Hints:
mainly alpha
Amino acid sequence: MKNPCNRALFFFLFFASLQLSAQDKLAFDESGYKAVLARSKAEHKPIFYMLYASWCAHCNKMKSEVFTDTLVINYMKKNFVCAWQDAEKGEGAFFKKRFGIRFFPTFLFLDEDGKELYNTSGEFTSTALITEAKNALTKEKQLTYLQEQFLKDVSNSDACLAYLTALNKGRDRSLLSPIAHQYLVTQNESQLVSANNWKIIANGVTDLQSKEFQYVLNHQKEFEAVASPKRVQRKIENIVVELLTPALEYKDTITYSQKRLIAKTIQSPKNDSLVNSFDIQMAEHTKNWKKYQAITIESVDKYYSKDLKTLKEVATNYLKNINNTAGLNAAIRWMKQVVASLETYDNQVLLARLYKKNKNTKEALLYATAAKNKNGSMGFSTKDADDLLAELNSKQ
């Protein structure tokens, strides 16, 4: 018979381990913003707020690995009221609008009145997160302090840059723009070309038509000398992306057309290619396949002849949505370029399907057979090729 003492010891250890495992995670308050503020005042602690999304792999990794670390648990419990909010549910919209949140996870550090002390975003290790939390408790690194220093003398580039840098951690850049312009109006054109001023423009200017950015475009070489050609080009690309993306996301073709005219005032091959990529996306998002065909016929060979990924994406859209012979001939030509460089099973099947749709059974059989032989020789599935071959042979 089993020893009853051993059994009692087993159950004691089992339930103790359950209790410990329940405590091995940082407890996050989910009672809502007002309740968290009230708790912060009662406990006389600042707030650590995590904004996450359920689909965000970085958020989930931090939940499972960082917020189960004893060092993190102990430090955060001691120094903060910890809370979190799914940014796509409940009060998530309030947080996104008020704090300009664009990326997940975002971490906000607030005082007991809800005033922002510090923020950061992205995936952190345990050590790095504790470092960020310590920064949030350091007066000289807090947004309130940096704002005060900037407002003492808005013509001080160092103070402006320090404030913008602290703000610009995954935040909507449009919230930084008023601060940058508050400083930039103190500078005449002869002062604009400097390392600090370039950084302020790069971080805070979002209006392509602004006096400062137009000055950058007209004095690109001078700014490249204090920054670098790559940095200046990246800023030009980013300001166009920021200009066109909202209209694209909302499928607002009228606003897009207006913004596109502004974007096209930057005259360079790189910018032409960038705007064209937005044109293609807008036609695709709005399912305007007639316009999609017109744009791609005109631009694919010019901009994407060596971009196999784009060539395949366009050919796939033609297979699904374009029915005229001229369009399918173009898609076949693009897909043949892809297969010539990357002779994979999927690419050969796609090309075979394009030939089939264009009623060229002979070439469709050729590429479907090649695809079947390729995967078959390696022991991989050939179902797509087999199904396609069966369809083709049934029509002969």
